[in-house]
Predict the 3D structure of the following.
Amino acid sequence: MKVIVVGSSHGGYETVRGILATQPDTEIQWYEQGDFLSFLSCGMQLYLEGTVKDVNQVRYATPEGMTKAGVHVFVKQEISKIDPNNRTVHVINHADGTERDETYDKLVLSVGAVPFELPVPGHELQNIYAMRGRDWAIKLKAKTVDPDINNVVVIGSGYIGIEAAEVFAKAGKHVTVIDLLPRLLSLYLDEEFTSTLTAEMATHHITAAVNQQVQAFNGEAGHVVSVTTDQATYPADLVVSAAGIKANTTMLKGVVDLDDHGLIKINQYLQTSQPDIYAVGDATLVPFAPTGQSARIALATNARRQGRFAAKNLLGIPSPMPAVSGSSALSVFDYHFSSTGVKTGTSKKLGIRSASVLVTDTVRPKFVPNNAGNDKVWFKLTFDPDDGRVLGAQIMSKIDVTANINTISLAIQARLTVADLAYTDFFFQPGFDRPWNIMNVAAQKALATLA
């Protein structure tokens, strides 16, 4: 059997890896339109801050390594057309300008998403950058040490935007973060968390310009000099646009069914409207465990999970994609946070009723001093007010306690209730934890509201 995989990021990589693990004699052709295989944009901050020195190390795999594993790797080669009736793809080789057709038995689309370009005047000016992909990483790295860059404006306060803001703040720049939403990071955390993080960012010269809509990029001599919103104008020697992403699916119109956002429609087996064409990654929806509905959750973990299940299904091992909880984590200067599932701030949009309890305490018993690994921790547990089913949680501290959220993710997927979680057996040792883990404490508090 011949399988063609399009795209080399998380979903494409895991599809190839899954096929090799299950049926290594499969003929695999792996295509990357760019000149670099499997760059990981989620590792960009580590490179920009100097934790990772070599940008070429921010990847899953190399062409040489995958070729040794038996994969036919093609970089700088674009799949420009798909003919599902004849099971062929048209390939443009950007290295030498040649074109050809290739046949397939199964085709996997991991086409991903591209940065959303704000449709406002001035978007063509120089020094308006994105934060996605190896080429942008190299350009951004140069700007962190450019003495002519003093004021940086970041558009968007999701993870990518906040990572960009922290990178340039640490580089000694003044940063303004503009967002349409009323709070920074509001899609990931409720106000009890974002108020503390916003104050922390302010101490590092990051200004929050929320509830504001970008109206124009203003320039001089072809370079951006400021950004105008509906409320103010902010000086900008550099703009980092992280205002969201859009599915990279223009080429797929008329080939497979797309929804009104351009996302590829797939079934539980990752099949598109063409049964021999599968799709994974940011251009698709994933099943969301708290609601039982599909949702757009563009995370590497979800793309890799999809890739593994696409591999199973195309090899003839029927395996429905398991539901996910949407778990994620990030650090903002000294704070570490993670969240999963439903938040108070997202419950209404998701169309479900929820209740929440917030617990603030210390990570370890109070007699353990801060310099021995103790500090304040915030934990918010969200649950169904009728039956107590666990729907989500958020946690934050200057101590890294983010892994607790993995337990909540499992609780969501297992449909556990706060009654189950209230007395779950977690270990106790003063150097590590409390007699009652904070998840126990929150669940006990939640259980009391249901009585």
